[in-house]
Design a protein that fits this description.
Layout (H helix, E strand, L loop, with lengths): L2 H22 L8 H79 L4 H53 L2 H18 L1
């Protein structure tokens, strides 16, 4: 216990004892000062035992959970970085394709005679379709990577929520929830 908490406890204890003395002195009261004092002592002892027994498991649980969350975040970051690298790679490929297409157009213009106009038109159509196809492929890969990341994040969140619910809810909580549900359903009639 910290020094401040001990001082507060020693200041509050006499106030509680005086209040219980006044309460116990009223006529017909079943409470006595010693009875209230023992209840306070028992409560404090129970709380001290609970803190002593549950402190290490709770600290371990939360430190392990923190480590798992950090690991999951790092994995998600790595996957996002990989997706960004793929996007950059496709953009570079697109830029290279456009340069190559320009080069092909220049060569075709030099070598075109009678069929020059027809060949150029075909090359432009092919270039446009290749660029469009490459753009579509890049966009599809980006969408696919985003969907995979989103799905994995959702799956991790569902697993986390499910494990937290399973860990936090015990039989008493389940019984209480069922009883509250029946009370609410009964009150709706």
């Amino acid at each position: 216990m910290k020094r401040y908490e001990m001082i507060v406890a020693f200041l509050i204890l006499p106030i509680i004892l005086l209040a219980t003395d006044a309460f116990a002195s009223s006529e017909g009261s079943p409470w006595t000062t010693s009875m209230l004092l023992w209840r306070v002592v028992n409560t404090v002892a129970l709380l001290a035992i609970l803190v002593y027994v549950l402190k290490n498991p709770l600290v371990n649980f939360f430190s392990e959970r923190k480590a798992q969350i950090q690991k999951d975040l790092q994995e998600a970051k790595d996957q996002r970085d990989a997706a960004e690298l793929m996007i950059k790679d496709y953009q570079q490929k697109l830029a290279g394709m456009e340069k190559e297409l320009d080069k092909m157009r220049a060569e075709l213009k030099k070598s075109a005679d009678a069929e020059g106009a027809k060949v150029i038109a075909n090359a432009e159509r092919m270039a446009t379709s290749m660029v469009d196809a490459a753009k579509v492929a890049a966009e599809q890969e980006v969408r696919k990577a985003k969907i995979e990341l989103k799905n994995e994040a959702v799956a991790l969140a569902i697993e986390l929520a499910e494990s937290l619910i399973r860990e936090k809810i015990d039989d008493d909580d389940r019984k209480r929830l069922v009883e509250e549900y029946f009370v609410k359903v009964g009150g709706m009639k």
